[in-house]
Amino acid sequence: MKHLYTLFFLIPILTFALAVSPAYSQFEGEVRFTLEQYDTNRPESTEFTLTATNDRIFIRSQKEVNVVTGLKSDGLLVRNDLQDFVFNTGENQALKVSKADLDGLMNMIDRFSESPNSNNSAQTNWENRVVETENMKQHLGYEVQEFRLLGENNGQYVSIWLTPDIKVMWGLLTDVWNRVSNRFLDSELPIEIIMNSNSFPLLVEVYDNGQLTVKFESLSVDTEGFDRSVVELSEQKQLVGLTELMMNMFRQQ
User: Fold this and answer.
1) Does domain 6-252 sit in CATH 3.30.460.20?
2) Which residues pair with 57 in a beta bridge?
3) Which of 137, 138, 136, 140 is nearest to 31 (CA)?
4) CB-based contacts of 137: which residues, under 8 Å, 6+ apart?
5) CA distance 51 to 230
6) For the chain, N or C: smaller number of CB within 10 Å?
């Protein structure tokens, strides 16, 4: 199975659409995660922090991620209220990718693609692979229930522990996946389980032949003393648009 961190690292290359605000109490707080990989010669560990407010989400990674060639980011701000993504690319610089920019990019790809939606008919039948178990336990004071995504072979599955007590309006992130995954990606996870409006994953474990290979685990949940300022941009932050970035790249070639 592909590693679960792919879900997070693919965000910079995906596209958009803004979801209608759901009628539920939006979680506001900070969740700190660690991603551990055991299926390599040298086990790796990376920390992530997710901060959510009423209409914004900030995801920070301990390690920088390539947004485009030559441009790295250690943080992604999703502004559902302004319908854009902002990638932190430096102390005083950031890349802003708006809904309109991404819409134009996808339309252009559709025009030049021989079969724009050729992969839509080959969607995975998740109903036969996702199992709701009766396993329940406490994690960080939250009651979580296990769902399993079965692999192609026995002993290969993903264990996803969800709590109904944390509800996040994923907005742009969910719609990005829905629009692009069937066209460009061979996804091995039903995003509806990970990013849904009724529950939140506090623990995800990947097993292969009965051995734990990847673990994505929440370490803390803070709903009171978290830093709300991370979802705002300072006045000193210079925003560069997608069009400007592409033009600068062409000039450098």
Assistant:
1) no
2) 52, 78
3) 140
4) 143, 144, 161
5) 8
6) C
